[in-house]
């Protein structure tokens, strides 16, 4: 069964409401959904923060012993409980036998990165030969642009979205400059139409069609960090290839969050971080994908390192005949941080146990429930007049296939005050100037009751601001 086989959220809620005889907007209905959630047990796999540990919580308003409402997995996922034991195993090995930990135990260090490849490949829709865990997102994008951004006088432009995460723009500009070109004339940016927040797929494809002959590389986000829009990666890839462009994606907000089929879509390359929806910890090790069609291309330009050499040749130490490992692993420069990989192992074990399809099914229901309650309570034309006329608009796509766990909210006024007040009441989400609040209920550790509590907090805050 694929993700697309499931009912749409509203249909699901109507069906369940009839079954249990409860109103969709009631707290009892949220409890009913949570109690019957097939993934309700996975919350216990994580350390879930309490109000008393948060810096900006007002303990005169909320109980410090209560769990907060953590809707910030799009920035940093929660800590898996298994992480400490896995990391402790590697620390104990180091403590007991020093350098010889390379050779023995459940996870010999010299092969530590191999323990995550199959699960990462499954998450991004790839073959194991196409995936590796290494370095950080920005570093990996730079390394991938060595073979895939090869500008010429007639084809030197990079096509990307105007509102991309700032680090991507810095990467793009520095790569263009390093090849002797001017960012002012070597960048093409896709922008939303005036008065709109989302990029239309037809506008992206039209730009590629019109200017593709001058584009060397398309480097797009998988999921837009500010709006939560999941772009049509397959259509962008196909359009780029028709014009002879190389196509790659920054999947920071996409991996572990949306269904990906990088191999089948014929994507040239991609890179991601692991500390958001993959829950591998702050500064967690990154990952990259390179399509199998490049695996045995010996002429592919790249920066190479010792750890990308075939293992049996790596320790010959004669500096002769150092063949690179075919595929993505040939891009590894040096041995990965063992503790960082151990953290990723603990996080991926949870995904492996659950399966991405079930994760996305619940994600669509969580965001669908949040969307339903937001629209019912705070949309223009509802009872928003009870809150000094403040209303909330959702700028994330309505189509569940075009978004992940994040809903981005825009407030008609008082956005910063609202954000300040919800933090006092134990809500952890984040804010992007001037008026966007990003709310991301993550399916592995958030519940439908969390969503209902969030709506209650918003209601309390708007009533408080009305006084």
From TrEMBL:
Residues reported in the UniProt entry to bind pyridoxal 5'-phosphate: 137-138, 165-168, 221, 250, 253, 275, 306, 335
Q: Print the keywords alphabetically.
A: Cytoplasm, Hydrolase, Pyridine nucleotide biosynthesis, Pyridoxal phosphate
Q: Which residues carry this modification: N6-(pyridoxal phosphate)lysine?
A: 276
Highest taxon listed in the record's lineage: Eukaryota
Q: Where in the cell is it found?
A: Cytoplasm
Listed under catalytic activity are: L-kynurenine + H2O = anthranilate + L-alanine + H(+); 3-hydroxy-L-kynurenine + H2O = 3-hydroxyanthranilate + L-alanine + H(+)
| Cofactors required | pyridoxal 5'-phosphate
- Entry EC number(s): 3.7.1.3
Domain (Aminotransferase class V) ranges: 198-375
Task: Please give the InterPro entries that the UniProt record associates with this protein.
Answer: Aminotrans_V_dom (IPR000192), Kynureninase (IPR010111), PyrdxlP-dep_Trfase (IPR015424), PyrdxlP-dep_Trfase_major (IPR015421), PyrdxlP-dep_Trfase_small (IPR015422)
Record has Disulfide bond as a keyword: no
Give the EC class as a word.
hydrolase
One Pfam family, short name: KYNU_C
Identify the pathway.
Amino-acid degradation; L-kynurenine degradation; L-alanine and anthranilate from L-kynurenine: step 1/1; Cofactor biosynthesis; NAD(+) biosynthesis; quinolinate from L-kynurenine: step 2/3
Q: How does it assemble?
A: Homodimer.
Could you tell me which PANTHER family the record lists for this protein?
Answer: KYNURENINASE
Similarity comment: family membership: Belongs to the kynureninase family.
According to its UniProt entry, the function of this protein is described as: Catalyzes the cleavage of L-kynurenine (L-Kyn) and L-3-hydroxykynurenine (L-3OHKyn) into anthranilic acid (AA) and 3-hydroxyanthranilic acid (3-OHAA), respectively.
Q: What is this protein called?
A: Kynureninase
Taxonomic source organism = Hydra vulgaris (Hydra)
């Amino acid at each position: 069964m694929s993700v697309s086989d499931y009912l749409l959220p509203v249909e699901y809620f109507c069906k369940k409401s009839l079954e249990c005889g409860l109103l969709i907007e009631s707290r009892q209905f949220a409890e009913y959904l949570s109690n019957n959630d097939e993934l309700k047990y996975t919350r216990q796999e994580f350390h879930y923060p309490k109000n008393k540990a948060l810096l900006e919580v007002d303990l005169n308003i909320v109980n410090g012993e209560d769990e907060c409402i953590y809707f910030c997995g799009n920035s940093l996922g929660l800590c898996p409980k298994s992480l400490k034991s896995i990391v402790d195993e590697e620390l104990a090995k180091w403590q007991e036998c020093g350098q010889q930990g390379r050779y023995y135990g459940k996870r010999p260090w010299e092969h530590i990165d191999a323990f995550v490849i199959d699960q990462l490949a499954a998450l991004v829709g790839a073959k194991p030969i196409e995936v590796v865990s290494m370095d950080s997102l920005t570093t990996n994008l730079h390394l991938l642009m060595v073979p895939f951004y090869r500008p010429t006088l007639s084809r030197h432009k990079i096509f990307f979205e105007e509102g991309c995460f700032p680090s991507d723009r810095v990467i793009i500009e520095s790569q263009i400059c390093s090849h002797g070109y001017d960012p002012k004339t070597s960048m093409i940016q896709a922008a939303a139409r005036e008065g709109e927040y989302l990029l239309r797929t037809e506008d992206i494809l039209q730009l590629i069609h019109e200017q593709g002959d001058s584009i060397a590389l398309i480097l797009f986000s998988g999921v837009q960090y500010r709006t939560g829009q999941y772009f049509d990666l397959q259509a962008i890839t196909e359009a780029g290839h028709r014009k002879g462009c190389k196509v790659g994606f920054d999947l920071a907000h996409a991996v572990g969050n949306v269904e990906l089929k990088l191999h089948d879509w014929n994507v040239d390359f991609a890179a991601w971080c692991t500390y958001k929806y993959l829950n591998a910890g702050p500064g967690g090790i990154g990952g990259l994908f390179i399509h199998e069609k490049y695996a045995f291309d010996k002429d592919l330009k790249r920066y190479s390192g010792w750890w990308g050499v075939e293992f049996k040749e790596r320790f010959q130490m004669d500096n002769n005949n150092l063949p690179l490992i075919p595929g993505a692993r040939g891009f590894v420069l040096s041995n990965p941080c063992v503790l960082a990989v151990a953290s990723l192992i603990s996080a991926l074990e949870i995904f492996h146990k659950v399966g991405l399809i079930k994760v996305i099914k619940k994600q669509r229901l969580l965001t669908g429930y949040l969307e339903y309650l937001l629209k019912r309570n705070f949309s223009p034309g509802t009872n928003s007049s009870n809150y000094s006329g403040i209303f909330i608009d959702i700028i994330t796509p309505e189509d569940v296939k075009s978004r992940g766990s994040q809903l981005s909210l825009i407030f008609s006024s008082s956005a910063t005050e609202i954000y300040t007040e919800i933090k006092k009441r134990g809500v952890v989400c984040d804010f992007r100037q001037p008026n966007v609040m990003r709310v991301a209920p993550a399916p592995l550790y958030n519940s439908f009751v969390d969503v209902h509590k969030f709506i209650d907090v918003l209601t309390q805050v708007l009533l408080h601001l009305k006084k």
